[in-house]
Sequence to fold (141 residues):
Amino acid sequence: MDHVKIFHNPQCGTSRNTLALIRNAGIEPEVVLYLETPPTRDALAALVRDCGLTPREAMRDKGELYDALKLAEPHWTDDQLLDVMVQHPALINRPIVVTAQGTRLCRPSELVLDILPQPQQGAFSKEDGEVVVNAQGQRVK
Fold:
């Protein structure tokens, strides 16, 4: 079985749904609680690159911290944004999932289905009731 890693925030519904989809495929992933154990700067840069994103695209742009640091201003370089995310891991958008099939920021959560090494084993609905996978394990949308 391929190794799957999720950079997870249990307080985030999208992150919880993504973790549940991974488990619905019969996979018990390595769960990294990145707020408690943030990635190193080099590891974060690699994750962002492997997702095909810029640091700005991988940054959570909601909340008081983002506003307080004025991170929407265009003068921030990619290197500076990475440094800020390492210093304040709450600014890392989530969840990021790493598999042998790729690395992806899973927003929305069903994007994880594109990179899982195993199919879904049954029906799955998000916490809000939206059906994502039918009883045959097939993606609905």
Observations:
- The CA atoms of residues 35 and 89 lie 6 Å apart.
- The radius of gyration is 16 Å.
